[in-house]
Amino acid sequence: MVPVSLALKNEQYANELWRYKNTTGAQQHYFRTGLAAVLWRFLALHEACIAAHCAVPGFSVVTTVPSTSGREVHPLRTMVADMVGATRGRYRDLLTPTPEAAASAERALRRATRLRHSGARMCCSSTTPGPQGTTPSPQRRP
Questions:
Q1: Which three-class secondary structure state does DSSP give residue 140?
Q2: Could you tell me where the beta strands, DSSP code E, fall in the chain?
Q3: pTM (two decimals)
Q4: 25 burial type by CB count under 10 A (0-12 exposed, 13-18 middle, 19+ buried)
Q5: Comparing C-alpha atoms, which of 30, 49, 50 is closest to residue 38?
């Protein structure tokens, strides 16, 4: 599994990430299309390299971390499942938020940070702008 984050708060693309979720109509379409293009291009340039680093032939399944904000369908899911050709045929809804998901997002971020700095090599997968209450289990590699 490989986590892919488009942007962190107050960094590049933060405005676009807010707008693709919180605007409507033509403006929403504009920002969703733009971010979908960024993700598609990222995958075209880097997915094979990430797979090689993880010692796997490729990624047959792509998923997103579900929303804990109360949105019925998160716009990221729409982008990855429907808009981005590189992920459309591989997308699966695999994760569901737990009832305490929103409250545990902060703890999940701290846990992920500890794991990242533990020295163990690992591969994780979810295309998301950060932990949102579900925590895929990392698959550690020697």
A1: strand
A2: 3-4, 121-123, 126-127, 139-141
A3: 0.66
A4: exposed
A5: 30
**CA separation for the pair 41, 91 (Å, rounded):** 17
**What is residue 21's predicted lDDT score, i.e. its pLDDT?**
87
What six digits make up the tokens of 121? 């090599």
Query: How far apart are alpha carbons 130 and 46 in whole angstroms?
Result: 19
Residue-averaged pLDDT of the chain: 74
**Cα(19)–Cα(122) distance, rounded to whole angstroms?**
32
Backbone angles phi, psi at 130, to 5 degrees: 120, 165
Give the E-state strand segments of 9-142 in sequence order: 121-123, 126-127, 139-141
For residue 29, the enclosing domain spans: 3-141
